[in-house]
Amino acid sequence: MTVPTGRTTVPERRSARAAAGFAGAAVLLFAVAPVVLSDFRLGLLAKYLCMAMVAVGVCLAWGRGGMLTLGQGVFFGLGGYAMAMHLKLADAGPGNLPDFMHLYGTATELPWWWKPFESPVFALAATVLLPMAVATVLGLFVFRRRVRGAYFAILSQALASAFAIWLVGQQATTGGTNGLTDIQGFFGYALDDPVNQRMVYFVIAAALLLLIALARQLVHSRYGELLVAVRDSEERVRFLGYDPANVKLVAYVVAAGMAGLAGALFVPAVGIISPALIGIVPSIEFVIGAAVGGRASLAGAVLGALAVAWAKTALSEEFPAAWTYFQGLLFVVALAFLPGGLASLAGVVRRRRSARTEQPAPVVPVGEAA
Questions:
Q1: Closest by alpha carbon to 198, among 36, 43, 44, 84?
Q2: Taking Cα atoms as reference points, which of 206, 274, 218, 257 lies closest to residue 49?
Q3: 287 burial class (0-12, 13-18, 19+ CB within 10 angstroms)?
Q4: Which of 6, 66, 199, 279 is the most exposed place for a label (fewest CB within 10 A)?
Q5: How far from chain centre, in Å, is Cα 32?
Q6: E-assigned strands of the chain?
Q7: pLDDT tens per residue, range 95-153
Q8: Cα(287)–Cα(280) distance, rounded to whole angstroms?
Q9: Distance CA 232, CA 236 (A)
């Protein structure tokens, strides 16, 4: 029997703060932003929110699981291409080839692996399940062999590079370097209509909040505690009877599904998907956003991804040739001087203030004390 004490527990205070944060984010995204921002700026915010969706998965896999995922661009691209393929087929009409196949290809009929994407149900499922399936195969291969640390990061980055190179080489069926462009409709809605563009924004905003809620549930569950334990001491977890490979695999696969959904929603928001958006550089950008905001904090990772995406748009206009160097410097500074990201800044300030106020007691010589 629990006796009420009139005091709130730590989980209750945490839940109250989370509820207040969700309510504030919902008000900002659904009420304030559409009123304050123009259609163009709202479209940019929709693009940034897709980056934040990927950061949620990075926070789960890297911040909580210790897996430096430098290949999230692969899963982002798989989801994006799955959505774009269906939308291009819908724009072309039943029985017709997409426009780029007439320009670059010599085929007179649709390739066999394009045909399933004519179904909207298959395409929607593939945007999430296809990245998760690829992550499952890769994760089983990597984690079973206890590949971790820098080796895992290099392997995931190599996968992103290989995927982008393959897409460029398949110009007749994937659009090559240009990718899939000029997407005009989204399940029957014309994307050149500002009203429909706002609808896409609302869908993206709602998806981001749902992913944050899902990730928070995982983080504060028993699985989340086990994931942190695997990150801190994998061998001890194995001695306790758990398989660290399975624990890490779940986080990696969930992060891949989040990146795939982000890529799928990125397509109607921007109207294009190409190898330049899913290679090594974009994969690193996803990680930089989470690192700057705070990879161990869901709110920090989301805000960091939004800040980095906005800075890329703003600073690349002023310094188009030097922005990449600024981005790399930002990543190095964040990891070197503030490993916890901006989300840990308040805690660092509080600790330093408390250290200054707590002065050590003066040492009194033994003779004087006597």
A1: 43
A2: 206
A3: buried
A4: 6
A5: 24
A6: 185-186, 189-190
A7: 788 888 877 665 678 888 899 999 999 999 999 999 999 999 999 999 988 888 888 88
A8: 11
A9: 9
